[in-house]
Amino acid sequence: MKYLAFATGMLAATTAIAETPVLTVYTYDSFVSNWGPGPSVEKAFEAQCGCDLKLVGAGDGAALLARLKLEGARSDADVVLGLDTNLVAAARETGLFSDHSVTAEYTLPIEWSDSQFVPFDWGYFAFVKAAELEAPTNFKDLADSDLKIVIQDPRSSTPGLGLLLWVKEAYGDEAKSVWEGLADNVVTVTKGWSEAYGLFLDGEADMVLSYTTSPAYHLIAEEDASKAAAAFDEGHYMQIEVAGKLAASDQQDLADQFLAFMVTDDFQAIIPTTNWMYPAVTPKEGLPKGFETLITPEKSLLVSPEKADMVRDAALAEWLDALSQ
Amino acid sequence: MAGRVIAIRAWPGIGAAAFVAALILGTLLAVALRAEAGRGLGPSEWAALRFTVSQALWSAGLSVLLAVPVARALARRRFIGRRLFISLLGVPFILPVIVAVLGLLAVFGRSGIVNSALRWAELPEISIYGFHGVVLAHVFFNLPLATRLILQGWQQVPAERFRLAAQLGFGSKDMWRIIEAPMLRRVVPQSFAVIFALCISSFAVALTLGGGPKATTVELAIYQAFRFDFDLGRAALLSCLQLVMVGAAALLALKLSDRDGFGAGLDRPVLRWDADTAPKVALDTCVILCAAVFLLVPLSLVVLDGIAGLAQLPRQVWQAAWVSVLVSLASTGIMVALALPIAIASSSRHRWLEAVALLGIAASPLVIGTGLFLIIYPIANPFSVAFPVTALVNAVMALPFALRMLIGPVRDVVQDYGRLSGSLDIKGWAWMRLVLLPRVRGALGFSCGLTAALSMGDLGVIALFADPERATLPLQMYRLMGSYRMEAASGAALLLLCLSFGLFWAFDRGGRGHAEA
User: Fold this and answer.
1) Domain region containing A199
2) What are the two backbone dihedrals, phi and then psi, of residue B41, each rounded to the nearest 5 degrees?
3) pLDDT grade, residue B425 (50/70/90)?
4) What's the helix, strand, coil split of chain B in %, to 5?
5) Which chain B residues have a beta carbon less than 8 Å from that of A69?
6) Do B111 and A154 touch (CB under 8 A)?
7) A62 in reach of chain B (CB within 8 A)
8) A231 and A217 in a common domain
């Protein structure tokens, strides 16, 4: 009889769980990892929503979008978190997203208004180097120097695509000749960010394409002040990461609640030291200690989503031409 | 036609091969059907195709060419640590790509051992990045595999043949003409085909060591089609090209390779009277030492690099390790269920079955994963089948290697013992248990070890199916890297290396009951 009681108890427990609404959020892999923002975000949101927040990791930003296109309107996802501005146009084109109702005092370096996508963090791309290295201050000086860099392939990596648009936005028609100048500085091109950063830490290159916030990780998590980002005077390209609600979601209210939660301090305070990016709305207590040591670019570059979608094919062709010599 | 006498039916093998073909072609079809109008293949895809074929030809050619002397040296010599060395030969092959690349760069990279030495000696530095780097890395991965496959060929020569050769006073030339050359004709073309197939779908290694977009392979073009352009039609088309290339190589290899074995022996230990001269001993020692340095130095650096990180491994990594072990054991089981019937069927009239199985490594993992996702998605939640799917796909990917190891020995058993078994009326399970399994134990153990280890390290297909709650060990390793935790990631890589090698060693040793393998 004891077993029967136990089984009944189990059954009751499962039913209770089944009644809790589940909000499914698709995001990139490093967000859900145990070292990313995922676990803390889940805890903070579940404390206030009376729901079960299910974070599902799917590769990186671009893989996330491809995944969504494969699933279409039947997707289990209620919210997609982790697309960046370069992917927004393509995401909008799918027609899968619906309008949001979030308003917030964003602390982004640019004006943000988008009816479908809410920003949650942002950063600047930059070349990371050893702190004591005398680094060039723009792409042309870098091309003239003997310094070796390792970058990511725009076809398989989000930062790689960011660099492509950075050079294109800064130099326009001159971009191709800039890349031709850089060709002998590029040690190699990697599939993703991790490989490139790993090569840099192993001493394969003097600089690696990453973020201005990367040195903060080494400083805060490892108490190592030996890394710095090189400030470029043509400006730094920005990455703004956004989230959006799916029109076909059966949890519209919860999804709205999540997007609103995303721009509050509870969420934003988690971002700097787990995702190593700037929060989209600076929390009341400010940025963590250590972030004040980072470089602040004088000029922010960003191609609008619609334009990014248009120029990237031409920019990629130039890049391939220049580096395949 | 010795092949006609067979104690076991061919249909399970044909069924298994049909299943593999259906899996690969079905996923390809699923992707193609889902495609919207794309732009087809442009000049950049054709350039990628040319690069892919030329690097694969060089890599496979060089791996096999270098493997012949290494395998010969290992076949002729007995020394302390030989078994361990042969087992270690499997390791570069089973390492996750990124780990092996970092190991190679620690030796040949800009701040690697070689360049540090050159700088110290004030000599010009060398650069690993370029076409030669791609080939070097692929040789590093595949030389050990080629060596094992070719060594297997030597081991299939019965001891009696060497005894007879010694009695007849064979010199090196006679040995080559009568025993070694025919044996190599039997194993080399197909070993080449397997490695060629493996190099065709290379991506991260080729890109990283190729030094830039010059080194764009077809697999990278597939990635571009999938995530940059979301052009599924082009992705499917490119994967078709991969299949055609590998299919052509497999058929050619089948045509070139000799099929007759050396006949049965009494399984006496092999004694090589012919190899005891001083120059041969010196040559073999030198060859083995060179191979050992080339293969083991980068591996040792991976191990050294990981020790510090091992202490930092969080709990989740250990959980992931456990999940990975279970998946890889399941994978091994599926592989055996597919490989043995195919090997038996292809040892008689159905030799083409091996070519079918080769498609498993030729097809793009991204396309297989996407296709499976498209097929499963309407029926079931992909997360709930994440691990069975991973185990199945890993088994199919390991199948070509397993078959390459198994077909030779199985064919010998069928040809040499088929008539005797027939006259004794030993059939079916009894034949498997009494005749076949004891004689292919070594090859089967190696195949299981390889499958288990490969499955441990694989990441290819899981991405789309990744279970949100439980990750595999390679996925956790990448997540550590993705969160800047490179040192802990090195620790996870070392754990992965140890577990893969542990599984590989256990199966491989378990198979090698006989003393000489």
Assistant:
1) 123-237+293-323
2) -95, 135
3) confident
4) 80, 0, 20
5) 230
6) no
7) yes
8) yes
The reply to whether A311 touches chain B by the CB within 8 Å rule is no
Whether A93 and A135 share a structural domain: no
When computed from its CA atoms, the radius of gyration of chain B, rounded to whole angstroms, is 23
Q: How far, in Å, CA of B52 to CA of A252, rounded?
A: 48
Q: Which two tokens stand for residue A29?
A: 């892999």
Residues pairing with A208 in the sheet: A128, A150
Mean pLDDT for the stretch of residues B355-372: 81
Show the domains of chain B with their CATH numbers.
2-511 (1.10.3720.10)
Q: Dihedral (C-alpha) B352, B354, B358, B359: value to the nearest 10 degrees?
A: 50
Residue B290 predicted with pLDDT over 80: yes
Q: What is the average pLDDT across B398-415?
A: 84
Instruction: Evaluate if residue A106 carries a pLDDT over 90.
Output: yes
CB contact under 8 A, A155 and B220: yes
Q: How far is B371 from chain A (nearest CA, A)?
A: 10
CB of B318 within 8 Å of any CB in chain A? no
pTM of the model: 0.86
Residue A191 sits in the same domain as residue A311: yes
Residue A123, strand partner residues: A239
Q: Which two tokens stand for residue B512?
A: 């090698």
From the list B342, B466, B457, B460, the residue with the least C-alpha distance to B393 is B460
Looking at the complex, does the CB of residue A151 fall below 8 Å from at least one CB of chain B?
Answer: no
Instruction: Dig out the tokens for B368 from the structure.
Output: 């297989």
Q: Is A223 on the interface with B (CB under 8 A)?
A: no
CB B48 within 8 A of CB B216: yes
Cβ of B484 and A195 within 8 Å? Answer: no
ipTM for this prediction: 0.84
Structure tokens at A72: 């279409």
- The residue of B31, B220, B377, B483 whose CB has the most chain A CBs within 10 angstroms, and thus the best one to mutate to test that interface, is B483
> Which residues, 6+ apart, have CB-to-CB distance to A282 below 8 Å?
A107, A268
Residues B141 and B33: beta-carbon distance below 8 Å: no
From chain B, the residues in CB contact with A199 under 8 A are 102, 105, 109, 208
Tokens of A223: 């108490």
